[in-house]
UniProtKB/TrEMBL annotation, chain A:
Membrane topology, as annotated: Peripheral membrane protein
Domain Clathrin adaptor alpha/beta/gamma-adaptin appendage Ig-like subdomain stretches: 713-823
Protein's organism: Cricetulus griseus (Chinese hamster)
Cellular component GO terms, alphabetical: clathrin adaptor complex; cytoplasmic vesicle; endomembrane system
Protein name: AP complex subunit beta
Automatic annotation (TrEMBL), chain B:
InterPro entries, alphabetized: Adaptor_comp_med_subunit, AP2_Mu_C_sf, AP_mu_sigma_su, Clathrin_mu, Clathrin_mu_CS, Longin-like_dom_sf, MHD
Organism: Cricetulus griseus
Phylogenetic placement of the source organism: Eukaryota, Metazoa, Chordata, Craniata, Vertebrata
GO terms of biological process kind: anterograde synaptic vesicle transport; intracellular protein transport; synaptic vesicle endocytosis
Protein name per Swiss-Prot or TrEMBL: AP-3 complex subunit mu-2
Record has Protein transport as a keyword: yes
Superkingdom of the organism of origin: Eukaryota
Length: 943, 418
């Protein structure tokens, strides 16, 4: 009686038997046979051989049989295109059927047959169906346009289906509207530039009306579409919000979250003084809380989004701490997310509760969760100062449990607490030292060593402790080795008399026996410092450390704002902008929150206003990894240094730079202020003398070696603003990129007769969000005929607006006389980032994946370079050679580069020895950059 | 939009696949299997898994993974909600949702899935409408079909599909007109060692079973609607009316449906109906531990607590337990370390208790986790939040329906830490 019988035959002649049954005269037998075929198909058996026989069954009045044959057709038409043509006539006939159900079914199925030849026949019936009198047929036809577009985009445009689809947005039936919106959104996704969903107040009104009447899924499409609209003023924003708010009470969580997205986005435009703003805030909390009582999978997505919302507007959920408390049978992925949000919401008011919970979690079974809970306690201490004492004592309690991984986690976080509150909780060090032996994870060992080194003067047996680690120096991970090196140097500087031998030992281990360049470099720097000027060494090594930030993993404000626009999408689950990961995310369309309209608080310039992110509120953030100061001060406890060749080389360059600038001046100083020869210095150089010289030459070798690579090509300065146009101020400049930072090198000349002061600079919005990272600093007034050179650091987190040409930058410079405007073109290669080397496999896959129409080919003439030289030149400007191949006497270089906004450009450079012309093929998902990348290639290669 | 769907059983076999666009090779599921291997338990498989070209979104229900494949940016909640809807539909069609049942009805399943999505866009997901398009299999119908040669595919355009009330079909007729409403509340709570409440909230739903002729228009009003400040409605409820008058006004779907769900989280409003007294002690270097728990009523508004089941996952170090209950039956599984005590009704005069000893692994130190006690119970005729329906009126039809309202309180995730 059941369908399982269709699965039972596995005999050899199965296909043959089915064939016979399909050609049977009996209707009933035929149907049973088709069912068997479908059943085999669903479990993945290949029954394509039966294609002609199944298609023969299509001309029937029996709706079920017809449907079954349609199902089969959709699956196999691709592999049997010629046969599929046979079915076309039946489809065309069915599109005229008096029964709307059959008309709709026919047009739906035709769209699913992904065969080019068939699509041509589809156009006429589809056009009719789009104008059908029955809304059910119209709504099916709307989706069919999206299907057809997927198969043949050009055809859809040529046939004018897009316009018909746009007309359907004003259809009288809400279901048709919803499907038209859905189809248009899907088409628009593959055409980021096209203005398919050109929304205006009238169409918005239509959508809002349809929103109330269509199905839940339709509501999602419409809400997502609304979120892309930019209201013209705060009144319009408010009225849209008012009409969207009822959706928050919908039973479908996807509808709720899409509504939250629209509200979060438009709220940005409302003034905070408005009563409505407060009401809206209050209305947002309950639906978010309700999402947490849904199934765990829904909870997970909701929690990832709440994490964003809490960062953007903590006030919404600040009283809802308790709903994030963890139940012991929550799935682990829900537990970890809840914990994260708990810490974000922790404040002085609720810290006692939170701590009690965290302590409870730290005794659970799941190791990952326990670790995170322990870490969370540390984060609470850092975040809420009043609770620090309680947190520390909680951590001590946990250490007493002697559960190995708990102890290790606790030590790692206690190190951070020491950093945040120096000289406050050192009394616990003794307890920590007791657990030295049980530490087996690098991070915990490194943290413990840091503590010992930092507080060497208070730990009587610090030297013994460190010595014990030194025995297995070469078996330790890099992180621990670096830490140990620094800790022993600190110890030496604090207790010079007893520890000379130890420091000798560690320096020679680090410089002579280690293959790790980071370790060696740091060893040499310390050695040189110690041997030339211990006072300076003390200043450098024992310098005061920058404070660590309260929230170590806050999402950067601009990214956060972008992500808020993507609430409810995959981007919000991954906390990455879609351009960073979505396959075929052709869009470079960065969404941004609408700028806040004039409210009392927005006195900032429009340049920094969107987001309304208070940039001044977080002064004490840890410098990014790889920061030079941080490196020397040894704050590299964070992410372990996994050393891909690239990262390593950039660190090297950093070190070299430092030696060039910072240390030379240190050494220079030492000539004057000869240190009041401490006993140790007299002894040290004598013994250290020999290795130092070799070490130094080694270092200088490094300098010369790396020196050529130490930055991308810099064009000579050109005059940007002639003096006649700017009342005597002449500005010339160029752009440089060095070690990951972009700067604008400027030369200001005063050709007027009066003194110039009060300089300031501002950029207009531009394609890549370039903006000054610091104010323009001209220290002294510029007197007539004087020239000053300065370098203005830039970042790429400014507002984005596409410019024409793409690399156009409009600049305003102000001084005491007037404001002057000029525009300049920046070479694109300053935007090539250091981690632009793509993995080979990835390169291949991406190259294949980018459609051929995005490929652009260029000739670079008169460039007699050999492959090696070209590759090196390009590499120094962050164009990386992924692979090299020689074909028929030509060298092909496959190269990749990445722009600051995450766009990848793939290149194939063909070099023929003896021929000065090079051929460059570029592939990129955003083809508009190709032209500029080509220009960058040309400039780099020719200089 | 949604590209494909794979159904995978717990032993890792793909037993059904359905593609709404081009065919995605089933090898994409390998990424899912990898994730499944990493997760220790089926429940812990992350719901969103990225692969180089696709994203896999999955839900785990009835020991089956429903894995949807998407290629472009699609709201994940949309996909997960849809998967839930698929599960609900299967359950609605076949009574249970399990691998054998799906295999038994594979053609209907395939037809239903085809109707639910078109090119990845949801088409008909209301079970009312689906059932009009594709009739659920019943033994009687199969017999009739084989004899008469008719099919279980409807050939009428589903009437609800395009009307203003898409959830209700026209021409409904009953001889007995009745409307039943169940107010069911679940308490989720965490109680700490000392018996004070860490968190407590109520998840409430009003499920309705309405069998009324024609197009009835119902209104439902509450004695204390102010309790409901966080609600989700079935699409049939007129939201404006609720906003302004706090009255539920709606044209109901035919049959069973969830009218609304609500959430009461304000702590002072949540009464905790039971308490658990516990004393569980492990001693270092002793092979015996003591175990004693007592369950008693608290704030029950005079109603009896029934169906009480106490479960607890004991620490690994517990080898066996020898316990005596004052009522009910108990079991302890020495392999999974799961203690379960079926208490039944609580008689306030004679509180049920369970006491005895635990034999512990010799030499093992005291376990660092304490067992959490899980509680299940039911209270009939009581909505613990105090929600009460005032009256139910019907407009638009002449007959007099039979009306009924039932209340019930249950334990949701009710945990007591020790």
């Amino acid at each position: 009686m059941t369908d399982s019988k269709y699965f039972t035959t596995t005999k050899k002649g199965e296909i043959f038997e089915l064939k016979a049954e399909l050609n049977s005269d009996k209707k009933e037998k035929k149907k049973e046979a088709v069912k068997k075929v479908i059943a085999s198909m669903t479990v993945g058996k290949d029954v394509s051989a039966l294609f002609p026989d199944v298609v023969n069954c299509m001309q029937t009045d029996n709706l079920e049989l017809k449907k079954l044959v349609y199902l089969y057709l959709m699956n196999y038409a691709k592999s049997q295109p010629d046969m599929a043509i046979m079915a076309v006539n039946t489809f065309v006939k069915d599109c005229e059927d008096p029964n709307p159900l059959i008309r709709a079914l026919a047009v739906r199925t035709m769209g699913c047959i992904r065969v080019d030849k068939i699509t041509e026949y589809l156009c006429e019936p589809l056009r009719k169906c789009l104008k059908d009198e029955d809304p059910y047929v119209r709504k099916t036809a709307a989706v069919c346009v999206a299907k057809l577009h997927d198969i043949n985009a050009q055809l859809v445009e040529d046939q004018g289906f897009l316009d018909t689809l746009k007309d359907l947005i004003s259809d009288s039936n809400p279901m048709v509207v919803a499907n038209a919106v859905a189809a248009l959104s899907e088409i628009a996704e593959s055409h980021p530039s096209s203005n398919l969903l050109d929304l205006n107040p009238q169409s918005i009104n239509k959508l809002l009306t349809a929103l109330n009447e269509c199905t839940e899924w339709g509501q999602i499409f419409i809400l997502d579409c609304l979120a892309n609209y930019m209201p013209k003023d705060d009144r319009e924003a408010q009225s849209i919000c008012e009409r969207v708010t009822p959706r928050l009470s919908h039973a479908n969580s996807a509808v709720v979250l899409s509504a939250v997205k629209v509200l979060m986005k438009f709220m940005e435009m409302l003034s905070k003084d408005l009563d409505y703003y407060g009401t809206l805030l209050k209305k947002l909390a309950p639906p978010l809380v309700t999402l947490l009582s849904a199934e765990p999978e829904l909870q997970y997505v909701a929690l990832r989004n709440i994490n964003l919302i809490v960062q953007k507007r903590p006030e919404i959920l600040k009283h809802e701490m308790k709903v994030f408390f963890v139940k012991y049978n929550d799935p682990i992925y829900v537990k970890l997310e809840k914990l994260d949000i708990m810490i974000r919401l922790a404040s002085q008011a609720n810290i006692a509760q939170v701590l009690a919970e965290l302590k409870e979690y730290a005794t659970e079974v799941d190791v990952d969760f326990v670790r995170k809970a322990v870490r969370a306690i540390g984060r609470c201490a850092i975040k809420v100062e009043q609770s620090a004492e309680r947190c520390v004592s909680t951590l001590l309690d946990l250490i007493q449990t002697k559960v190995n991984y708990v102890v290790q986690e606790a030590i790692v976080v206690i190190k951070d607490i020491f950093r945040k509150y120096p000289n406050k909780y050192e009394s616990v060090i003794a307890t920590l030292c007791e657990n030295l032996d049980s530490l087996d994870e690098p991070e915990a060992r490194a943290a413990m060593i840091w503590i010992v080194g930092e507080y060497a003067e208070r730990i009587d047996n610090a030297d013994e402790l460190l010595e014990s680690f030194l025995e297995g120096f070469h078996d330790e991970s890099t992180q621990v080795q670096l830490q140990l090196l620094t800790a022993i140097v600190k110890l030496f500087l604090k207790k010079p008399t007893e520890t000379q031998e130890l420091v000798q030992q560690v320096l020679s281990l680090a410089t002579q026996d280690s293959d790790n360049p980071d370790l060696r470099d740091r060893g040499y720097i310390y050695w040189r410092l110690l041997s030339t000027d211990p006072v300076a060494a003390k200043e450098v090594v024992l310098a005061e450390k920058p404070l660590i930030s309260e929230e170590t993993d806050l999402i950067e404000p601009t990214l956060l704002d972008e992500l808020i626009c993507y609430i409810g999408t995959l981007a919000s689950v991954y906390h990455k902008p879609p351009s960073a990961f979505v396959e075929g995310g052709r869009g470079v369309v960065h969404k941004s929150l609408p700028p806040r309209t004039a409210s009392s608080e927005s006195t900032e310039s429009p340049e920094t206003a969107p987001a309304g992110a208070p940039s001044g509120d977080q002064p004490d953030v840890i410098p990014a990894q790889g920061d030079l100061l941080g490196d020397l001060l040894n704050l590299d406890l964070g992410p372990p240094v996994s050393a891909p060749p690239l990262a390593a080389s950039s660190v090297q360059m950093g070190a070299v730079d430092l030696l060039g600038g910072g240390l030379d001046s240190l050494i220079g100083d030492s000539n004057f202020g000869a240190p009041p020869a401490a006993v140790t210095t007299a002894a040290a150089p004598a013994r250290l003398g020999a290795p130092v010289s070799s070490g130094l030459s080694d270092l200088f070798d490094l300098t010369s070696g790396v020196g050529t690579l130490s930055g991308s090509y810099v064009a000579p300065k050109t005059v940007w603003l002639p003096a006649i146009k700017a009342k005597g101020l002449e500005i010339s400049g160029t752009f440089t990129r060095q070690v990951g930072s972009i700067s604008m090198d400027l030369q200001l000349t005063n050709k007027a007769l009066q003194v110039m002061t009060d300089f300031a600079i501002q950029f207009n919005r531009n394609s890549f969000g370039l903006a000054p990272a610091a104010p323009l600093q001209v220290h002294a007034p510029l007197s007539p005929n004087q020239t000053v050179e300065l370098s203005l650091p830039l970042n790429t987190v400014g507002s984005v607006m596409k410019m024409e040409p793409l690399n156009n930058l409009q600049v305003a410079v102000k001084n005491n006389i007037d404001v002057f405007y000029f525009s300049t073109l920046y070479p694109l290669h300053v935007l090539f980032v250091e981690d632009g080397k793509m993995d080979r496999q990835m390169f291949l896959a991406t190259w294949k994946d980018i459609p051929n129409e995005n490929e652009a080919q260029f000739q670079i003439r008169d460039c007699p370079l050999n492959t090696e030289a070209a590759s090196n030149k390009l590499q120094s400007s962050n164009i990386f050679t992924v692979a090299k191949r020689s074909v028929e006497g030509q060298d092909m270089l496959y190269q990749s580069l990445k722009l600051t906004n995450g766009i990848w450009v793939l290149a194939e450079l063909r070099i023929q020895p003896g021929n000065p012309s090079l051929t460059l093929s570029l592939k990129c998902r955003a083809p508009e950059v190709s032209q500029h990348v080509y220009q960058a290639y040309e400039t780099i290669l020719k200089n | 939009m949604i590209h494909s769907l794979f159904l995978i059983n717990s032993s890792g076999d793909i037993f059904l696949e359905k593609h709404w666009k081009s065919v995605v090779s089933r090898s994409v599921c390998d990424y899912f299997f990898e994730a499944q291997e990493r997760a220790t338990e089926a429940e812990n498989v992350p719901p969103v898994i990225p692969t180089p070209h696709h994203y896999l979104l999955s839900v785990y229900r009835h020991k089956i993974f429903f894995v949807a494949v998407i290629q472009t940016e699609v709201p994940p909640l949309f996909v997960i909600e849809f998967l839930h809807r698929v599960v609900d539909t299967f359950q609605d069609y076949f009574g249970v949702c399990s691998e054998p049942v799906i295999k038994d009805n594979v053609v209907v399943v395939y037809e239903v899935l085809e109707e639910m999505l078109d090119n990845g866009f949801p088409l008909a997901t209301e079970s009312n409408i689906l059932k009009e398009l594709i009739k659920p299999p019943t033994i009687l119908r199969t017999v009739v079909n084989t004899i008469t040669g008719s099919t279980n595919v409807g050939d009428q355009l589903p009437t609800g599909q395009l009307s203003v009330v898409p959830w209700r079909r026209t021409g409904v007729k009953y001889t007995n007109n009745e409307a039943y409403f169940d107010v069911v509340e679940e308490i989720d709570a965490i109680i700490d060692k000392s018996g004070s409440t860490v968190t407590a909230e109520i998840q409430g739903v009003i499920d309705a079973c309405v069998k009324l002729t024609g197009m009835p228009d119902l209104t439902l009003s509450f004695m204390n609607p102010r309790l409901l400040d966080d609600v989700s409605f079935h699409p049939c409820v007129r939201f404006k009316r609720w906003e302004s008058e706090r009255i539920l006004s709606f044209i109901p779907p035919d049959g069973s449906f969830r009218l609304l769900s609500y959430h009461v989280s304000a702590q002072n409003l949540v009464a905790i109906p039971v308490y658990v007294k516990h004393s569980i002690s492990f001693r270092d270097s002793s092979s015996l531990g003591r175990f004693e728990i007592t369950v008693g009523p608290k704030q029950t508004m005079g109603k009896t607590i029934e169906g009480v089941i106490v479960t607890s996952q004991m620490p690994k170090g517990v080898l066996n337990m020898s316990l005596t209950p004052s009522q009910g039956t108990h079991t302890f599984d020495p392999v999974t370390k799961m203690l379960s005590w079926d208490v039944g009704k609580i008689n306030p005069q004679k509180l049920p208790s369970l006491k005895g000893t635990m034999s512990l692994q010799v030499g093992a130190s005291k376990p660092d986790e304490n067992p959490t006690i899980n509680l299940q119970f039911k209270i009939q005729q009581l909505a613990i939040s105090g929600l009460k329906v005032n009256r139910l009126d019907m407009y638009g039809e002449k007959y007099k329906p039979f009306k009924g309202i039932k209340y019930m309180t249950k334990a949701g995730k009710f945990q007591v830490r020790t």
